[in-house]
Amino acid sequence: MNRRRGHSWALRCMVPLLWAMASLWAARIDPHAYTGGRERDETERIRRNSSALAAMLGEFRTSISDIMFMKTERYLHGGVAYRPHHSASAPTAEDMADEVEEHQSELGIPDDHAHKHSGVPTVVPPPNRDFRGWIGDLHRAVRPWRDPSRAHIHTDGRDLLPWFRVMTRADPRYVRGYVAGAFWLAQEDREQAIAFVSEGLEHNPDAFELYVSRGIIRLREARMAEADRGELDPDIRDRWMQARNDFRRGAELALAQRPDDVDEEGFGSGGWGHYHENDALTACRMDLLITHRFEGPVAMSKRRTLYKQTFPELADSPPND
Amino acid sequence: MNQALLPIVRSTLIDALRRRDLGVVAILMWALLILLVAARMVGLEQPTTGTFLLNLSLTLVTFSAHMIALLVSARQLPEEWENRTLYPLLARPVARGTVVLGKWAGATVMGCGIFIGLLVPVWALVPQLEFYDPRTLAQLITLQPLALMCTAAIPILCTLYLQRALAVSVALVLVFGADFMARWAERFPLLYLLPNPLRLNLVLRYTDGIGPLPAGDFITLALAALLWTTALLIQSILRFERRPL
Fold first, then answer.
1. Which pLDDT tens digit goes with each residue over B203-217?
2. Which residue of B has its CA nearest to A52?
């Protein structure tokens, strides 16, 4: 009897030991910790999602993220459903940065934002274009609707931060979720925004848009810190350099991924869109500007020689001394 | 022990074959196979679409196998209690540990059967227009039964501590939510201790065209699954032996 009890105790002690060993061993290994791979390649992904079969079936994770993204966009427009009015399928990191100024206008800083964003058609058409008569009137009355000839109303996207979190949890490869989420998060807490984009980069190490996005946040942080302190101390210089490194890495990745057949509007083979082109240009331009300021025109000129092979428009950016 | 074990495994398999959940999986997989046949007949032009289909199919196969192993395993002991069929079973010269092992083995065999039975037609039907490393496939096929062993052991332990519905829910969260929870492990280190059988899932690695895991990582993952399973089964047997009937 005692022998049996001792046996049982030995087994009881073994359980946590085996458990801990197994868990700690397994935690060290992630079979999906590799660079590259078709699923993570944004170009491959666009090509895959453009196929008829993918359109029919949909990829569950992608669909979830897309639905969430559409919901967040609708919320940002005060519940009004507008037709997609960007020629690109994803906002660029540069566009998101431009939106800072747009949203500042809603906080009382005047600009011409309202003029820029009027005339975008709504999903529910206005009365003069709606053949449905009173049914259309009813539709406009019961759904959030705004005359498309008037400017958009943009709500504060900070309320949507949890959605962006869920969106990227559902699909960690959803680059635009990280870009948009980081933009809004940066309005509240830049450190967290940087951490959020960095998390995106862990899952998508080849997504140059994320480097551009993080570079923009770091750049803004460096600018504000410099303006606050009124001088360029080593800490602030370090922030500028971090931003420069992000833009440079983003530019290198973008140049490596950019196809050779990009047309004047910025579209090329393999799903390359004008938003890719804009972000690639932003990365190159910002790298040149920061290099020019901190390392001088000679260092900048070397980088520019590299970039202008792909982007001839950078020949005069920034202007030579 | 072997004499008693095999009939229990067999009865578990027979019980599982009579259930509706297997029918649901069969319908789902038939739909997938019809889709694959149609895609094959129409012909896929883009290699990326082929990869997408392969990933989707293998993910469904793996998910189905784990789901069936989990549900079959979760049903075993509670139903024996509810139907009072456990008493005649234990009235025979059968150790309680053998009952637990038999039930677990039956659920594991069922999960493995689903996995292999579906993997073969899926792999044969999906047009493979890009490179996929056969060594990664070999690792995938080797690791999945070990993952299924662990998946089948989790609900057995849960049903010995919790009510049936709650046990199934907890087991579902532990099996299918482990990867999700592992993302918070840096903040909450206790989450490192959760078993994670889906960590042994190499489907994405395979369809991404990545080579096999290094030998050390492969062996470590296999050992981790074996240790998790052993620990879960030991604890289940100890609990079942002390539990009043």
1. 989 988 888 999 999
2. B49
Its ipTM equals 0.73
Give residue limits of the domains in chain A: 38-117+152-316
B44: closest chain A residue by CA:
A53
Q: What is the pLDDT of residue A46?
A: 64
The token pair that represents B3 in the structure block: 């004499």
pLDDT of the residue at A64:
57
Closest chain B residue to A171 measured between Cα atoms?
B180
Distance in angstroms between the alpha carbons of the first and the last residue of chain A: 94
B231/A15 touch (CB, cutoff 8 Å), yes or no: yes
Inter-chain CB proximity A169 and B213 less than 8 Å: no
Contact A38 B192 (CB under 8 A): no
Model-level pTM? 0.59
| pLDDT averaged over 10-residue windows placed end to end, chain A, 321 residues | 66 82 83 73 64 55 59 64 50 49 37 50 80 84 76 63 77 82 83 90 89 92 87 87 93 90 79 81 90 88 88 70 47
Tens of pLDDT along B173-214? 999 988 778 777 777 888 888 888 988 999 989 988 888 999
Chain B residues whose beta carbon lies within 8 Å of the beta carbon of residue A5: none
| A153-157 LR contacts (CB < 8 Å, sep 24+) | A153/A77, A153/A78, A153/A80, A154/A76, A154/A77, A154/A78, A154/A102, A154/A103, A154/A106, A155/A75, A155/A76, A155/A77, A155/A78, A156/A103, A156/A106, A157/A72, A157/A75, A157/A76, A157/A183, A157/A184, A157/A187
Q: How far is B71 from chain A (nearest CA, A)?
A: 23
Interface with chain A: mutation pick from B208, B229, B243, highest number of A CBs within 10 Å: B208
CATH architecture, domain defined by A38-117+152-316: Alpha Horseshoe (1.25)
Q: Residue A25 is nearest to which of B51, B200, B224, comparing CB atoms?
A: B224
| Residue spans per domain, chain B | 2-242
- The answer to whether A14 contacts B234, with C-beta atoms less than 8 Å apart, is yes
Residue B193 is nearest to which of A23, A29, A54, comparing CB atoms?
A23
- How would DSSP label each residue in A131-182? TTTHHHHHHHHHS----TTSPP-PPPGGGGHHHHHHHHHH-TT-HHHHHHHH
